[in-house]
Recover the amino acids of this structure.
């Protein structure tokens, strides 16, 4: 399991039965799930909103520090 920290991450999820990913900002780390803020862009209104997702930790990918 990769180490999870507060900050930006890649969140893996299923959409229409296809694995995909988006970026998110981890706000709270839990033992099994973490609270992640995910920006969403609405093409029709040209407005960005922030959704709050509770994501299982195994679907969160942190960038390894070099």
């Amino acid at each position: 399991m990769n180490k999870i920290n507060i900050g930006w991450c890649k969140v893996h999820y299923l959409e229409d039965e296809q694995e995909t990913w988006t970026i998110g900002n981890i706000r709270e780390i839990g033992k099994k799930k973490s609270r992640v803020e995910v920006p969403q862009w609405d093409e029709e209104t040209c407005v960005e909103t922030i959704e709050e997702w509770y994501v299982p930790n195994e679907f969160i990918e942190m960038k390894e520090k070099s």
